Structure formats: C-alpha cells, structure tokens
Amino acid sequence: MATEKYTYDTREVTHGVQRAAYATITNEEGKVAFGKPASYTGMRGVNIETTQEQNKFFADDQNHIVLNSAKSTEGSFTCYQFPKDFLTSHLGKKVHDNGGLTDTGTFKSFAFQWIETVEDEFGEKFDELHVLYNVKATTPTAEAATDEDSTEPKEFEVPVTAAVNNGVLDKDGEATTEMVLRKTKENEELFNTFMDKIILPTDAIPSGAN
C-alpha cells in the first residue's frame, strides 16, 4: 500500500504592529457610524485574547451535553504616548484652561485597528489589517523610574474590552466584534482605504479592481 505524501502549507509567521488607528462611534436613530480613523503614534504592542468557556451538564451518570458560553474579548495595548483627542474622548480625561488634565472625563467606545506583517518562507510579505468594532478602554497603568546609565522610556498599558457591535453585520446578518483582512491583489483597492474609513465585513471590492 502506497504511503500518501504529506503536503505542508506555505510556512509563514506574523510580526510587528504598525499604523494603529482609532475612530469614534456614533449611533443616531439606531444607525451606527464611524468617524474617520485617526493615527495612533507610539504603539508598542497589542495583546487581545478571545476566550469562550465550555459548560458540561450531566444526566444519566454521563456527560449529557456541552454548551459554549458567550465569547469574551479583552486584553490591552502598550504605547509610549497618547493622542490628545484619544485622552479626552476615550480615556476619561478632561482638559482645563490652564492645560491641566483631570480624570473626570468620559470613556466613550471606539473602533480600533492596526496592521501586522505576515511573512512567508519565500520572503513574501503581506499586510494584515485587524479591526475591533466596539472597544472600551479603562485607566492606563504605568511605572516611573529614575534615569540610570541608560534611559528607559515610560511605557503605558491600556486595558481594553472588545464587544459585539450590533451595527456591524457580516454577510449572514450576524453582529460582529472583529475582522481580520489580509491584503491581496484582488482587495488591494479596498484595503488601501483603511485610513479613510473603518472597513466593514460587507464592504465590496470596487468594481474594476484587479
């Protein structure tokens, strides 16, 4: 009996975080809309994890059924600085006439996106866009230390939770939390609009695009 040849997929790895951006969310008369993405300079890393617990129910002295609980998407991002608008719109800060910032502002939800680089074993590189459609941040954490022989910049960690956005539906009408879009020759024209608008799962590739 001949042994069936095992075929590997093209090997690839993902690395880097670049061109991070955020966008405001508005909801008028039940219609969700996004503002134009604003650049987020100084992004160091993004750590987002989706978890889903399984609950076992027993009957007749055996496992009767296993039900999945609701998904939970949370994590944090780290950065060296904050856009001023992000501080006042989404991180609970309020600006005063003397330039002071107090922690008496609001934490409005926002859309958040960033690009990672996918590189395969042949040296080909692809941009991959990650979009979270409904994110809520909480107060950042940071640690200050004295300068020594070498100076280490202060790094901030922002805890975030991502939730379903009922105004963003997939092709089957399901409400969506996130989307990952890899740039290809076919969708390049659409992909390149990522800093002009928040790309939705149902946004069509422009007609005539190669």
UniProtKB/TrEMBL annotation:
This is Phage tail protein. InterPro entries: L_lac_phage_MSP_N, Maj_tail_phi13. Residues 5-205 form the Phage tail tube protein N-terminal domain. Pfam families: L_lac_phage_MSP. It comes from the Bacteria. It comes from Carnobacterium divergens (Lactobacillus divergens).
